[in-house]
Amino acid sequence: MTDHPIRIHGLNLSPPCRIVMIFCKLHNIPYELVVVDLTKGEHKSPEFLAINPYGQVPAITHGSFSLGECGAIIYYLAEAFHTDSQWFPSNPQLRAIINSSLHWHHTNTMKALTPYLFEKIVGPRFFGRPQITVEKEAEVTANLDAFLRRIDTIFESGVYIARTSSPTIADILLFSYLSQLEMENFDFGPYKSVRKWYGEIDSIPAVREVHEPLRQFIQNVS
Amino acid sequence: MTDHPIRIHGLNLSPPCRIVMIFCKLHNIPYELVVVDLTKGEHKSPEFLAINPYGQVPAITHGSFSLGECGAIIYYLAEAFHTDSQWFPSNPQLRAIINSSLHWHHTNTMKALTPYLFEKIVGPRFFGRPQITVEKEAEVTANLDAFLRRIDTIFESGVYIARTSSPTIADILLFSYLSQLEMENFDFGPYKSVRKWYGEIDSIPAVREVHEPLRQFIQNVS
């Protein structure tokens, strides 16, 4: 199966799509990006639902096989291409710990970040939603702050997000979500260890490269 | 490592803990349940955080190794004990599809079910929260209804939740969360295919056995 090309159905501006692209680049897995235009509802089209019945990006196709959910895609690619790297080691216990972090992310990173991003930035700017109220802003900011303080403590203790001694795909996942905060030039200053970690992950060439379209987009809409 | 006993740190009343216990029973993996009393905050104790820094149940210990997040635990146990069954087949593509469903669950099942359960049942009954308002009840009920209608369509088409032709651990995960609705004797009647599926999963001996303490609890507090 490794001789079939990987198609990533998604878009550069989506964090989970970026993670899959970065994973491929880090492991020299060739891929083709098949753009799914969410603004045209292409992720709910019969063609796309045949690839991913969840109607979400990213999805991959690998020969006649298709798969959704970035955490599952990473695991599948690692198995199919027999990858073994610091990003997602083949050692079963290390892989399990990183996989655990990919699950944790859904109910922690997302829970803190999504309401902040949607209510404060993306909703009003791109979806015609009303400006956020003072009360709501205080609430979403407090939740994001609590999350950032929590991960700041983790990084301060000298480990990465999955408690490993070097960065893994779980750090890249976290980074790809937090990088959306660049849309409002968010100040990581109060979270010293997060800021240092953010700079370190951002300096990985594959991460920089895949984030370039997001940064272009931010520049264009500023 | 398979000669080390598995310790499951958690409790019978927690859906993700039940899933790990059921997985072990289905694959004859011996385990010991180490009860973590959430009402005493034991999941935030230094002893527990040393096992699972996320401060959540379940966690497992396997020799000196420890791991949190039920989706990651299932994958780890399957690898460590070389399991291969209809519940989580070793075939890489089937396993990937089921793993994908375990990820999907976080932002779909949980998103629809948790607010309904907490705001309407668990909060007022067990945490001294005020009774749900009429508006809030309409909102959480509509979200749960939309989710149940969605999965009803999936089951109606003759497949299980991960689109497999026989039930998998993803169905057991979904069941273990939905079974919480038995606390209010929820009527699955309007969702005919969900109701049929629910009865089928409930008839699996390991599922019944691990759900017995929940049903006892419901009887005791009714």
Lay out the secondary structure.
The structure is a homodimer of 222-residue chains.
Chain A: E1 6-10, H1 15-26, E2 31-35, H2 46-51, E3 59-62, E4 65-68, H3 70-80, H4 92-107, H5 109-126, H6 134-156, H7 169-178, H8 192-202, H9 205-221
Parallel strand pairs in A: 1-2
Antiparallel strand pairs in A: 1-3, 3-4
Main location (chains A, B): cytoplasm
Domain GST N-terminal (chains A, B): 4-85
Organism (chains A, B): Blepharisma stoltei
Describe the structure.
Chains A, B: This is Glutathione S-transferase. Chains A, B: Residues 4-85 form the GST N-terminal domain. Chains A, B: Residues 91-222 form the GST C-terminal domain. Two copies of one chain form a homodimer. The first copy, chain A, has 222 residues and is α+β, with helices and mostly antiparallel strands. Chain A has helices at 15-26, 46-51, 70-80, 92-107, 109-126, 134-156, 169-178, 192-202, 205-221, and strands spanning 6-10, 31-35, 59-62, 65-68. A four-stranded mixed sheet of chain A has the order 2-1-3-4, covered by helices on one side. In chain A, helix 4 (92-107) crosses helix 5. Chain A starts with 5 loop residues before the first strand and ends with a helix. In chain A, 39% of the residues are buried. The mean pLDDT of chain A is 96. Chain A binds chain B through residues 53-54, 65, 67-73, 75-76, 79-80, 92-93, 96-97, 99-100, 102-104, 106-108, 110, 154, 163, and chain B through 53-54, 65, 67-73, 75-76, 79-80, 92-93, 96-97, 99-100, 102-104, 106-108, 110, 154, 163.
